[in-house]
Amino acid sequence: MNGKPLVSIISAGMSKFGKHEGSLGREIFSQAAAEAFNRCPKLDPKKEVKAMFIGHMGESYEHQGHMGATIADWIGMRGVAATRVEAACGSSGAALRTGIYAVLSGLSDVAIVGGVEKMTHRTTAEVTEYLAMAADYPFEQFHGITFPGLFAMMATAHMHSYGTTEQQFGKIAVKNHHHGSLNPKAHMQKEITLETVLSSKYVAWPLKLFDCSLISDGASCIILTKPEIANKYTDQPVHIIGTGQATDAIGLYERESFTSLRSTKLAAEEAYKLANITPDKVDLAEVHDCFTIAELIHYEDLGFCKEGEGGKLVDSGATTLGGKIPVNTSGGLKSKGHPVGATGTAQAYEIYLQLTGQAEKRQVKDAKIGLTHNIGGSGATAAVHIYRNDQ
Amino acid sequence: MSIPLPVEPFTIEQFYKFLQQGKLMAGICQKCTKIHMPPRPFCDKCGSQLFSWVNISGKGKLVTYTVINIAPQEFQDLTPYTIGIVEFAGGLRIPGMIQDVTQEQLKIGMPLVINFDTCSPPQQWPFWQRYYFKSL
Fold first, then answer.
1. I need a labelling partner for B132 at 20 to 30 A (CA). Which of A5, A175, A380, B64 fits?
2. Is residue A293 within 8 Å of residue A151, measured between CB atoms?
3. A143 in a domain, yes or no?
4. How far out from the chain centre does Cα A92 lie?
5. Residue B5 gets which letter from DSSP?
6. Model confidence over A59-110: pLDDT tens digits?
7. A281-292 in b/e burial notation, b at 16+ Cβ within 10 A?
């Protein structure tokens, strides 16, 4: 038997990802919270939830900081201890980890973790600038380096070291759009062809427009409790059996490698150890595909294939629905969308649906063990979580 | 009694000040001799907080690169522009723009040199002057 449950997910909710014109982040989060509350009628949130952690990357988007209290206020939870957690695009993966601390500490038997970002009302140039704030300002942004630029430099290095191709990057985009076409909450529910990816314009060579994830609005919300009392709220709890979080140099240029993220490796090592499993036991995973090259690197760092063989794994089809280890069945950041602060717990939402048999057209058969992997910035933060359904 | 000479602080601002004087400088840990560029207050190898400045040769090689087409407002007039990470002796690396090299000429491993006399410093914080890289 693998690891013992650390905490249990008793409910989850997610807004549709995409353009929410006319709504503020707090209102979008309310949609995710409403779904989570409605799924779990036995929970009295106002009475039983003692801690809330909200992933939110940037106050620039909506001129709104202090998102912990703002969300608590707007979902009818004034009074609760609520804190914004920020780790760039890894904010809600870190919020999930923080929620686990809260429940395990005994200070809060029930905790809400989630995330939100409202981005689509901004121009691409503005979003590019705000996202870049998660890099190393004095040596990266200051010299005109963008986020696509950082991942492009990893792609250049991967191509140089292992012969990985732009076609292989493109296949990841095609796969994730195929998965997203099956997800009614995805931002872009549309199949694309490899030709579409390869003929799209370069954003930062060798990455093209269709190698990049989407700029989206959205929110996600997960409710955690102690495993011993999970059955009080639901007969379908999903247990978190592994958690790992780690950091690396804030600047890409100081990392040991440009073709691997040490933060992912450290976080995965911690999570696999707690869960007492090896990577081959994972039935499906949601990984941080902010760019196609990122997903390919994560395959290697999470142990789904050997170093340098990410391209081959894509070619084999193993990570497509129906394959050996389906990755990003939700559509991933690429097609489901990437409202940055919401992404980590949106990954947990997908795994929750999959492990409880509620993923409809994209359901992975007999899924027992799922994994989520969320990174901040160019990988200075990584959070990995492992989930199991005991039924 | 000898009074120690004042030492410039091991800050990023000081790193850029040295560049403006035409010097590429790094912090060397007085305990374990690990060199840190950019300088920092704690040695990431031994934890020491004692450093000295050391001069680094501005000749290095390109280790990875990209060409940016979509840029933030501030850099939009420059697109497309090339960015690379350059490695100097001892494995020290910093990123920056590469000028006067075409995309076809870019090659991992090619020798590049840091250039200090760049355009005028920005009008807003930070008031540092941007260096760039060019071919030897």
1. A380
2. yes
3. no
4. 8
5. P
6. 999 999 999 999 999 999 999 999 999 999 999 999 999 999 999 999 999 9
7. ebbbbbbbbbbb
Residue A15 domain flag? yes
- Enumerate the CATH 2.40.50 domain ranges in chain B, comma separated: 59-135
| pTM metric for this prediction | 0.97
CATH of the domain at A351: 3.40.47.10
Tally of residues, chain B: 136
Which residues of chain B from 59 to 118 reach within 8 Å of chain A, CB to CB? 63-76, 78, 81, 83-85, 93-97, 103, 108
As a whole number of angstroms, the distance between CA A116 and CA A221 comes to: 9
The answer to whether residue A172 is domain-embedded is: no
pLDDT digits (tens, 9 = 90+) for B41-91: 999 999 999 999 999 999 999 999 999 999 988 899 999 999 999 999 999
Tokens read off for A211: 């190698």
Cα–Cα dist A334/A116, whole Å? 17
CATH 2.40.50 assigned to B59-135? yes
Rounded to a whole number of angstroms, the distance from the CA of B106 to the nearest CA of chain A is 11
**Tally of domains within chain A:** 1
* Euclidean distance between CA atoms A116 and A15, whole angstroms: 10
B121 to chain A, any CB pair closer than 8 A? The answer is no
Half-sphere exposure of residue A364, counting CA atoms within 13 Å on the CB side? 29
Helix (H) or strand (E) segment spanning residue A372 = strand A369-376
For tokens 């780790």, what's the residue? Answer: A87
Option in A132, A157, A258 nearest B72 (CB)? A132
Say how far apart CA A117 and CA A121 lie, in whole Å.
11
Known catalytic residues of A? 89, 338
Domain of A71 in residue numbering reads as 7-122+214-388
